[in-house]
Write a structure and sequence with these properties.
2 copies of one chain form a homodimer. By secondary structure, the first copy, chain A, is an alpha/beta fold. Chain A is 35% helix and 24% strand. Chain A has one domain: Acetylglutamate kinase-like (Carbamate kinase), CATH 3.40.1160.10. In chain A, the strands form 4 sheets. Chain A has an 8-stranded mixed β-sheet with strand order 5-8-2-1-11-13-14-12, sandwiched between helices. In chain A, strands 3-4 form a two-stranded antiparallel ribbon. In chain A, helix 3 crosses helix 4 and helix 6 packs parallel to helix 8. The longest helix of chain A is centred in the N-terminal third of the chain and has 25 residues. Chain A is globular and about 45 Å long. The two termini of chain A are 19 Å apart. Chains A and B meet through helix 4 and strand 5 of A and helix 4 and strand 5 of B. Chains A, B: It is found in: Cytoplasm. Chains A, B: It catalyses: N-acetyl-L-glutamate + ATP = N-acetyl-L-glutamyl 5-phosphate + ADP. Chains A, B: Keywords: Amino-acid biosynthesis, Arginine biosynthesis, ATP-binding, Cytoplasm, Kinase, Nucleotide-binding, Transferase.
Chain lengths: 258, 258
């Protein structure tokens, strides 16, 4: 099977113009077929603040009300996505910017209201691997923002990590897929205070111990759960680290396999 | 040759949710291959105002400075484009939202500074008909916002009428293309005060008289010049009128041919 890389960049890279440019050069130079997924980081929060839209938090969780969804659609779907696409074109990468509504590529369900009404938040239901395959087979490089739709005309704010893993799972039907989560750390750390304490390899054998001794906790926990879910559903490997994991020079990152 | 319809909607349709929904139903029901081009109307101006960005006007012409371009990218490329795409998906039309940067589909030159520096405004240089053909041949329906790029990473605000005609011209190499300009009038009017005084047919023989007696003037003049330019470069026909020109019921519109 042909190889396909799905790369997710976090907010810290998007928020800093120099970091973004450096990352996009690495992404453009990456061989083979590839897909980029980006969140929006603090840019949407900043824009909401400028517009006088206050974030609603319930039990510490952010709620996507109508006004917030509009800001997210403007910032992630417009400002961030189109600028990334234009910059990639300048780097000779034939990028095409997408939300999950475009080409009906990612269909979601609005998260059901249980204890909390999260508002316009989507949980991924179906990734159309054939629609995405048409694009990458025509040498387009899809750039997804973290927005999906419900098929009834409603856009939905959707977790970018989940979009990444769900795309990877769907594309595993016809490609050997690898996920690269680029973030502010060098990888999964043994000691959160030592940025060089990278755990180089995690698999389903070593994972339970990392959980039980609390090395994997807090924000890292859902990320890892997400990774193993992807691996169990056909993804070949997951890499976590800073943006240089896209190069052959970096040997200090976390590789996760089954 | 297969037929391809390129439809442009103006700001008045986008600004009103009911009008937009009615239009999208007509667009979704239109047979054959089709492309939609939209401007953004007053929504960008309103958003700029909310953000405290004042429009710069020189000799009555709006200047696209950096802050204004960001607003345009958010509103046209994000909010308007992604909502249209999601609504079309709900109407079983497999829309894919694009700026000219996406798939390198529309390359522009930043308008040279002569008497006026228009800022980040692009004049269309090249439409990649093959990139667009890949998409429509795969049954995607492209939805273009009025943003292009210069190939060096810079997005550019670009006139939606020009984008429409330039796409039509480029696609004429492999399709019999027709342009539909949907706007607030029933067509080109003999008497601007009589909305029913539609001139049903204009061609290069009747056009000079309409110019010399001042029937075509002001805002209509560049639109018509644009139409004849498109027709001379391979476009089959241009239709102007309200959104019902997309139906067979409406017989009150302006058809323009060579």
């Amino acid at each position: 099977m042909e190889k396909l890389s799905i790369i997710k960049i976090g907010g810290n890279i998007i928020e800093d113009e120099t970091s973004l440019h450096e990352f996009l050069k690495l992404f453009a130079n990456l061989d083979g077929m590839k897909i980029l997924v980006h969140g929006g980081g603090k840019k949407a929060t900043q824009m909401a603040h400028k517009l006088g839209i206050e974030s609603t938090l319930i039990n510490g969780r952010r709620i996507t009300d109508k006004a917030t969804l509009e800001v997210i659609t403007m910032v992630y779907g417009g400002l961030v996505n189109k600028n990334i696409v234009a910059k990639l074109q300048a780097l000779q990468t034939n990028a095409i910017g997408l939300s999950g509504a475009d080409g009906n590529s990612i269909l979601s369900n609005k998260r059901p209201v249980k204890d909390i009404d999260y508002g316009f938040v989507g949980d991924v239901k179906k990734v159309d691997n054939q629609a995405i395959d048409v694009l990458i087979s025509a040498n387009f490089t899809p750039v997804f923002c973290a927005i999906t739709h419900d098929g009834n005309g409603q856009l939905l704010n959707t977790n970018a990590d989940t979009i990444t893993s769900q795309i990877a799972v769907a594309m595993s039907k016809s490609y050997e897929t690898s996920i690269y989560y680029c973030f502010e750390l060098n990888g999964v750390l043994k000691d959160i205070n030592d940025k060089n304490s990278v755990i180089k390899h995690i698999n389903s054998e070593s994972y339970p111990a990392l959980l039980s001794n609390g090395i994997i906790a807090d924000g890292m926990l859902p990320k890892l759960e997400n990774c193993f879910d992807a691996l169990k559903n056909g993804v070949h490997a997951v890499f976590m680290g800073n943006t240089t994991i896209l190069t052959k020079e970096n040997e200090n990152y976390t590789k996760i396999t089954l």
